[in-house]
Amino acid sequence: MDKKIYPEYYEEIKEPMDFTTFRQKFSGKDSYASLRAVFNDLDLIWRNCKQFNAEGSDIYDNAD
Fold it and tell me: Cα–Cα distances in Å, from 33 out to 10, 19, 23, 28, 55?
């Protein structure tokens, strides 16, 4: 997520994770060391979605 477009996201979310970062980590030279680490980052994406977006919104519901 672009810090210039969504600065409030980075104020509220202390451990950002998104699919672009996930993909880069998954296929990059610093790839995940374990399947647990993969699941932890995926879970972080969903938790961040639910923390940042209003309950009942489409994004929140899709993350749920």
Answer: 26, 18, 14, 12, 33
**What secondary structure letter does DSSP report for 28?**
S
Place of tokens 């950002």: 16
- Rounded Cα distance between 63 and 30, Å, is 26
- What DSSP character marks residue 4? T
- Per-residue pLDDT tens digits for 6-44: 899 999 999 999 999 899 998 888 789 999 999 999 999
Q: State residue 59's pLDDT score.
A: 94
CA distance 59 to 54: 8
Taking the C-alpha atoms of residue 31 and residue 37, their distance in angstroms, rounded to an integer, is: 10
